User: Fold this.
Amino acid sequence: MSGLSARAVTSDADDPLAGKRSAFVLDDVVYLDGNSLGALPAGVPGRVEDVVRRQWGELRIRSWEESGWWTAPERIGDRIAPLVGAAPGQIVVGDSTSVNVFKALVAAVRIAGDGRDEILVDATTFPTDGYIAESAARMTGCSLRAVTPAEVPGALSGRTAAVLLNHVDYRTGRLYDLPGLTATVRAAGAVAVWDLCHSAGALPVGLDEHGVDLAVGCTYKYLNGGPGSPAYLYVRAGLQDRFDSPLPGWNSHVEPFGMRGAYEPASGALRGRVGTPDILSMLALEAALEVWDGVSIEAVREKSLALTDFFLECVAEYVPRGRVESVTPVAHEERGSQVALRCPDAGDVMKRLIERGVVGDFRAPDVLRFGFTPLYVGFVDVERAARVLAEELR
Amino acid sequence: MSGLSARAVTSDADDPLAGKRSAFVLDDVVYLDGNSLGALPAGVPGRVEDVVRRQWGELRIRSWEESGWWTAPERIGDRIAPLVGAAPGQIVVGDSTSVNVFKALVAAVRIAGDGRDEILVDATTFPTDGYIAESAARMTGCSLRAVTPAEVPGALSGRTAAVLLNHVDYRTGRLYDLPGLTATVRAAGAVAVWDLCHSAGALPVGLDEHGVDLAVGCTYKYLNGGPGSPAYLYVRAGLQDRFDSPLPGWNSHVEPFGMRGAYEPASGALRGRVGTPDILSMLALEAALEVWDGVSIEAVREKSLALTDFFLECVAEYVPRGRVESVTPVAHEERGSQVALRCPDAGDVMKRLIERGVVGDFRAPDVLRFGFTPLYVGFVDVERAARVLAEELR
Assistant:
């Protein structure tokens, strides 16, 4: 057994989160793609079966009240809240991330007010944010400018209405300075919208603490909600009365069953709701979130950094020098919970890794992505992944 | 046995769709709320279990390709297509009805082109359509005018960009003249958007035959997709190249995994996609749609009219005269698949009906709604519902 391999065993033995692995359905595969689709929490299948067979099949329409379907978006939002540092009553679950980006950006422009007619968007963003930002700009009479997060402070002006930022870059895994950028954007009189897809559930976000106004995120990565599970929208409590949604569906009405012709928005987080909530997916997510009982996000962060540190160390030790280049920052304060390695044949390499039971993913044109989900990935997994990677790269 | 009761037994025996009842999970309740939430098709629980345990739990990320997750929105759209008279390649499933109304209305205004700056909306519509229409108008620089469907021909002008119409009124069950109104709107140079929530799966729609441009609908009523199951969007093939979505998420990109900065829409129905599809709910819907195998929508319509005719006849026979007033049209060509009865104490009456195993619903302020889903409601059910209603109204 090599030194790294022995250390992996010791680290797993000392890992206070190691017991959480049994809360997931896993096999012999090293699953490093939880930053794309989280593994199945063991409690989900039974819950989904109950939702389908009893709540839908037997209670049918009565479940909207009796099984708590109607209030699920706010209730599950409150379950996500502590993971992203939010007090209750500020998060609502529903729709896709793209749709929530649209709600948040348009609302941000409206909050920023007259005379502000420019939206800044992270030029390195996951594409959908940029596409949606373009539509939000077009529909609010704003211009759109793509800048890197580092360029944001210099790009802010009296014209800036909203800034759409990623907490962690989907490709490189770079973690951005949410507290600093939030304060800078606010000082310029603009409103920041944070996309938390690649940070929520992997590291502390501190939405309330850092005075974030608006944020969105998906739930199928580190929150393990299942394929395409509904996204969420955070609106800071102090801003909710000014949240003016571009998608004012009947679920956000103050009296949804009043069937009133005039729209009057509800107060609170549920102002971010739109149409009828997608119950099957939403309640699967609710069951999935139970794995977080008793888990501190600080402990998750500590393990996440230890895992990515260890992976980088194993890669440095095993992989021939110069064969791959890490595009993930070395500094902890700039690293999310994934490691991205560039190599020209990344697509082929990832195919071979997957065949050998090491599952990451490939992002065009040349990036191997490895996501480290501290609730179910251990150090022995990490060492094995690096070893197999090195064998395939030789 | 009364005459009506005996006739019910005979009608059930002669019903060519009677065998379909066993394709659903039902009990002794007379379920007349399938126009709100369809009953559970028997094939759904097993399918959902496979999606959760095997596709998600074992294959995980591989299922996006291997289990056909990625292409589900178009594939399931094609499964809905014959039920609404559409050729393949024009329907995509995803998002809520409200979100799809927004996409369709904004796209309609853009198709109508410059100089047209008014949206007409059905004044009697389910509220969400009106709220969303107001937002679409605000965001496209249009004014919004609420008119009854009968007033539409007179309200059309050179200013009209789009008209949002309901095929069947959610409250009264009135069926509107889709072919005639579509032609009238088109002749005025405007674009009609049809909301099919209360007609799809209950009667022939004939989207292609009648030259409909844009339509949306939910899948949890007569299509039995489950609580909050994803909605769908129909864009006529000849119009798809001009469909300019206000929600251009990465799923509608010509090359979604190209991670390209510039948005270039895909061609075809999938231009209506937005974000990551909600797989659990979507594949439950796909399983639910299998109950339609071998069913002609014309046969469904024939039975639907027979059921509502029979219900009205039983009500007239059993219920004390003047105790309720039907707001559902008598003429077949103006009737959907529900009967709405007004009485001042409708809320209380419906509570008592539900306690006695006759499940309809109440719509404020004074409407008892009874939905008749021909795949699983029989004539004996109908007679029992009317009899219990009469007892409670005496």
About this structure: The first strand of chain B starts at residue 30 and ends at 31. Chain B has two domains: 3-17+296-393, 47-292. The mean pLDDT of chain B is 96.
